[in-house]
Amino acid sequence: MEQKKIFPKIALGAWAWGNDGTFGGSLTAADLRPVFDAAMKEGLNLWDTAYAYGMGTSEKVLGEFLRTVPRDSYLISDKFTPQCADPGAENAVTAMFDTSAALLGVETMDVYWIHNPVGAPEWTRKLIPLAKSGKIGQIGLSNHNLAEIKEAAAILEAEGLKISAIQNHYSLLNRSSETSGILDYCKEKGITFYAYMVLEQGALSGKYDTAHPFPADSDRGAVYNPMLSKLEKLNACLKEIADAHDVAAAQIPVAWAIAKGTLPIIGVTKVYQVKDAAGAAKLALSENEIIRMDRLADEMKLDVIRYWEKEMK
């Protein structure tokens, strides 16, 4: 049975905590503990992670912190990643859940996702026993298109279960979950849509430009550095809107995502990013500001679909 818990307007992502090279550099538990503490103080207690983020590293670090606070003080969003499945396991979904739960120090997950549709719908079927066991509060699908979502929904419905959450890459630069009808489907079915990479891993934060590029040794540097000259116009618009609201530029794409009816996942590695996220949850943008951002972003015509994703159609 789905747990009745109050979810914040924003989830905090621990992808970078996995130190898998995506973001460049490395982070320690000592670096991240102040981030965790600041988030819990702000009421941002929904943590999104996955075993795939550093092959358990993200979960291990987050788990260290979670063990120091009561279980009812936080919410966990974790994922089954098909590419990391144990081929020798009787049920690979259950096996990965158990591994993740042990690393995090929990017995239940508030949201548990099928990370991507590789091998779908096999994994949806293998999730059913776990869902019926009561160890999952909500069932989620990530990086699935509308046809794949409907297929999974039919399988689950036949078992008296339902999809409660969809998580896709959604930002000013990638609105394919909007144009494909996924957002409308979620609204119709009462499904929460989680928007990840709303800041395009920092490219829409106002922190990076041609004079201040991403770390050259990072995956995001390889992707976004070549587009920074084009993004400067959009980032200038974000700064102008931010100045009008007396907030940081990085808060605007987050507030935009909330205004679109989604629950954004914001990656945090610094205390100021937590405070920005908390502020963005309270920010109200005008309809004209949203339209202006949409139009300008559409003019960019930039392809930010990553290697593990597809355009939603």
Automatic annotation (TrEMBL):
Keyword Oxidoreductase among record annotations: yes
GO cellular component entries: cytosol
Domain (NADP-dependent oxidoreductase): residue spans on this chain: 9-297
Organism encoding this protein: Mordavella massiliensis
Single GO MF annotation: oxidoreductase activity
Keyword list, A-Z: Oxidoreductase
A Pfam cross-reference name: Aldo_ket_red
Database matches in CDD domains: AKR_unchar
Name listed for the protein in its UniProt record: Aldo/keto reductase
